[in-house]
């Protein structure tokens, strides 16, 4: 990794008090100029190479279900690639996560590349934490577009303040969650925020915030890298559905119910 890019990934990004307040109120925040164009170009080249190498989805779009049409999904790339590990372990991003959550430090839950192909479909309304066997909602995901992302490319969309809604928390991502949550969020009056992302702009959202993305109606790949952070003192809870059981086995193997999640693949990425 070039020295100047490594410095940028590690140097603190200072949040204004109003930005932390906005996140706590709305459950998400978009931050401009977190990374320079040079750094985004490096991230795109490095991560895209690994996505291409590790991708196992080769069905044509027309033969996939709604979830399969939404994106190519490659997880925990950091365990398979040293260059990607250097990116995932960015202290700049992890400190932002800790500051937004108001905690002393954060661990990695897992990373996840989400590449929406040209012509790729919508990402249905959902909340990530439905999948996680975590005892609290002290979680946040960073969404890093690896290119400028106009509306026609399918940027992440947010239902502002919807982390306060308990209805729909039992919905797996898919056609049902899209229909039911679309109706519920509109009926309850949660603001639907749909905006493009500038180059170098990233977002953070709470685990229980409902969000979606539109289709990619361009002829270019919509390349995105994400990392999920949790309070460094997060405790494993008894899984409440089959997906949480699978997540326990996959993303925090060896952790024990009722105890702090402290496994080799859940390292602390930042602490005060």
TrEMBL record:
GO molecular function terms noted in the UniProt entry: 2-oxoglutarate-dependent dioxygenase activity; iron ion binding
Needed co-factor(s): Fe(2+)
Residues passing through the membrane, by range: none
Name of the protein this chain belongs to: Phytanoyl-CoA dioxygenase family protein
Lineage: Bacteria, Pseudomonadati, Bacteroidota, Chitinophagia, Chitinophagales
Alphabetized UniProt keyword annotations: Dioxygenase, Oxidoreductase
